[in-house]
Design a protein that fits this description.
There is one protein chain. The chain has 4 domains: about 200 residues; about 110 residues, PAS domain (Beta-Lactamase, 2-Layer Sandwich), CATH 3.30.450.20; about 210 residues, Response regulator (Rossmann fold), CATH 3.40.50.2300; about 160 residues, Histidine kinase-like ATPase, C-terminal domain (Heat Shock Protein 90), CATH 3.30.565. By secondary structure, the protein is an alpha+beta fold.
């Protein structure tokens, strides 16, 4: 290497160090800019918190104006503020997701704000429906004031945290300025040191260059051997795109020998086209030479061999560069893609089959639900009627209750299958409301009282929780409590004991414990208990029956309520305990408006209600019409869409009860035709209970629906809701 080259190398190295020093200084400068941006962000977050509080005050101002005047124009600030505050909380949640705010703090602020908005809306509704005194009664409870104080405190807490973080950020920014100055000084010293290093390097550069040349020669020989033996096909070209090397794999794939391909243009040997369009694909060698970077082939590329056969391939090309960056040629690496393509095709076919199987499963579940539910309707209705009747001998009552329980068990098993399908698909929805868990427990005990009595079980209830109100879907939570209590009843010996107790924990949660002295569980059973179709082993399944879905569904329902469910047992024969933990609200903070006599709904006299029952299942139609007539309703029945349309046009009916599957159409067809000229209330009675089915009924025009088997008491309650006064 000449003296000039050595000097150039030294200068380049020194320049590199200088550039590196400048880069470090730039990085420090950027860090300082980021610190400044951080300060701005903290100021912005503080402003957003204050803006949210201000918007909530605007909502309260609009509410007060409406309460005092009763004029709707005073609600405009309230409504606008409610809309704004939801947008502002979306911004705060985004801050929380980005780690700029605490998820818990934002959730707490939103929870408090939601309760405040609910209180404002409640007073507005009371002012509109019952007048100023009713609304003022709620205001005077100070719930709204206390809630606003909590919100201000929460905003102050979050603002304080941001201000403290802002102070820390200011300190860090000052430290960065100091560090930047220090690094600048050190960089200067480093560059001076480089001059000393350059002098010494010149003395040894000549020997190092000679050693490097020897190493390059050895590496080139090693590369030639490697390319020849590599498992992928390799082609090397010069700057003109002419082939200078093919390894054995490349010769086999292209059909060209190394000698025949030598100095041939690459596209002649590496002849590639698009598999679908058959258009010629640009050679990756030409792309590399044009762009100077690594390139790859597009999908669906095939190589045409010298003998005309086609092979799907995958490849990449890269430039061959000297140490100074000069391109000296191109190396092209490719492989036979045939097996991968075949595997991809098989995967697509398998996925399509899986989608089809899943769709078929949904259709099967819907059809199975319908076919199993429909014949249960007349059976359940008849047994329920007999159970409530005084005409049958008392000796029959136990058998009737046993039959009714087993019919309801069949319906519950169907519901469990559908619930499991919803859970797997993530389509389980909740209708959240304020629920008294104690009342819900009492309701579940009442429903299962006959089963408990039948086994002569001793039931003790100890409801000590002060925080027994929860935000929940009452039907779903009742399902959880029912599953646990039903299991305790099922797996307890006659004369055994079951206890239900509630308590508060230190984290503001409601703890519900269900304990029995039944058959107990092993640790292995507990590990599998909350998995679908698990019930503790074949011996338990054969003895007690069931599908083993209740606990899996209960776990999903509890978790979607942000709760926890767990099970424990000392072992076989030593009973079991199930614990449900739910976020709760203290009873003393729950303010429900008093129900006045005027607010209590009373059912209309059934004798004044004419019902049209459209049902093609003969037994169901006969039993339901007989029971409804016995309760005082006027009932006319038919079994087809055509008959229903004709009868509804000729007569006056107050309510339509319609099955969905009919011989000449569907209940959806019927209600759509009726909705063209009438708004008469309509209830769908159906064995199809999938979520998409229920949505279709509502979209078609049904006002409500009941899933078969239809409970006659539930049907009567639903009818009363339409005709209460």
């Amino acid at each position: 290497m000449s003296q000039r080259s050595k000097l150039a190398t030294i200068i380049a190295t020194a320049g590199g160090v200088l550039i590196a020093s400048l880069m470090v200084i730039l990085v420090m400068g950027r860090a300082a800019m980021n610190g400044s941006a951080t300060l701005v962000r903290y100021h912005t977050v503080i402003g957003e918190l204050q803006e949210a509080l201000s918007t909530l005050k605007d909502a309260e101002t609009g509410q007060r104006g409406y309460l005092l005047t009763g004029k709707d124009q005073y609600l405009t600030p309230h409504d606008q503020a409610v809309t704004r505050i939801r947008r502002e909380f979306e911004i705060l949640r985004a801050r929380a997701r980005d780690g700029e705010l605490s998820d818990q703090d934002v959730a707490t602020l939103w929870h408090l704000t939601s309760e405040k908005l609910d209180e404002l809306q409640a007073t507005i509704v009371l002012r509109r429906k019952q007048g100023l005194p009713a609304a003022l009664a709620v205001v005077e409870t100070d719930f709204g004031k206390n809630q606003m104080d909590l919100i201000r405190a929460q905003v102050a807490k979050m603002t304080g945290a941001e201000e403290r973080a802002l102070g820390s950020a200011k300190q860090r920014a000052a430290d960065l300025v100091f560090d930047s100055n220090l690094i600048f000084a050190l960089s200067t010293l480093l560059n001076l040191g480089m001059l000393i290093w350059a002098y010494r390097r010149i003395r040894v550069e000549s020997a190092a260059r000679e050693k490097a040349t020897l190493e390059i020669r050895e590496q080139k020989e090693l590369l030639d051997v490697t390319l020849a033996s590599i498992g992928d096909a390799v082609i090397v070209t010069d700057l003109e795109g002419r082939i200078t090397f093919l390894n054995k794999v490349a010769q086999d794939l292209t059909g060209w020998t190394s000698s025949a391909a030598h100095l041939q243009p690459c596209p002649k040997v590496f002849n590639i086209i698009n598999e679908s369009s058959r258009a010629i694909v640009e050679s990756p060698v030409d792309k590399v030479l044009r762009m100077g970077t690594i390139v790859g082939l597009a999908n669906h590329t095939v190589l045409i061999r010298k003998d005309g056969r086609e092979i799907p391939i995958d490849d990449s090309g890269a430039p061959i560069k000297e140490f100074d960056g000069t391109v000296r040629g191109v190396v092209l690496v490719f492989r036979d893609f045939s097996e991968h393509k075949a595997a991809e095709t098989r995967l697509i076919e398998a996925n399509n089959a899986l989608v089809a199987a899943n769709l078929a499963k949904d259709h099967f579940l819907a059809a199975l639900s319908h076919e199993l539910r429909t014949p249960l309707t007349p059976v359940l209705a008849t047994l329920t009627s007999w159970e409530a009747s005084d005409e049958l001998p008392v000796a029959f009552l136990g058998d009737i209750q046993m039959l009714r329980r087993n019919v309801e068990l069949e319906a519950r098993l169907i519901d469990d299958l559908l619930d499991l399908n919803r859970i797997v698909k993530g389509k389980l929805s909740l209708n959240l409301e304020l629920v008294d868990a104690h009342e819900l427990l009492q309701s579940v005990v009442t429903m299962l009282q006959s089963e408990i009595n039948a086994k002569q079980l001793n039931l003790s209830i100890d409801l000590n929780a002060a925080r027994h109100y929860v935000k929940a879907d009452s039907a779903r939570l009742q399902q959880v409590f029912g599953n646990i209590l039903n299991n305790a009843t099922k797996f307890s010996m006659p004369g055994g004991h079951i206890s239900i107790a509630t308590a508060d924990d230190t984290q503001g949660r409601l703890i519900l414990k269900f304990k029995d002295d039944g058959i107990g569980m092993t640790p292995e059973i507990i590990d599998r208990l909350f998995q679908p179709f698990e019930q503790g082993g074949s011996d338990i399944n054969s003895r007690y029956g069931g599908l083993g879905l209740g606990m899996a569904i209960s776990k999903a329902l509890v978790e979607i309520h942000a709760g926890i469910i767990s099970a424990e047992s000392q072992g076989p024969g030593l009973g079991a305990q199930f614990t449900v933990t739910l976020p709760s609200i203290h009873a003393s903070t729950v303010k429900l408006p008093p129900m006045t006599n005027e607010g209590r709904a009373t059912a209309r006299n059934p004798q004044g209600i004419n019902l049209l029952l459209v049902e093609d299942h003969k037994d169901s139609a006969e039993v339901m019409s007989r029971l409804l007539r016995a309760k005082g309703y006027s009932v006319e029945t038919c079994s087809t869409v055509a008959e229903a349309l004709k009868i509804s046009n000729e007569g006056h009916f107050n309510l339509i009860l319609s099955d969905i599957g009919l011989p000449d159409g569907t209940g959806i067809d019927l209600i759509r035709r009726i909705r063209e000229h009438s708004s008469i209330p309509a209830i769908a009675l159906t064995g199809f209970g999938m979520d998409q089915d229920i949505s279709r009924y509502k979209e078609a025009g049904f006002d409500a629906h009941l899933t078969k088997p239809v409970n006659i008491q539930k049907l009567e309650m639903l009818i009363n809701q339409f005709f209460s006064n």
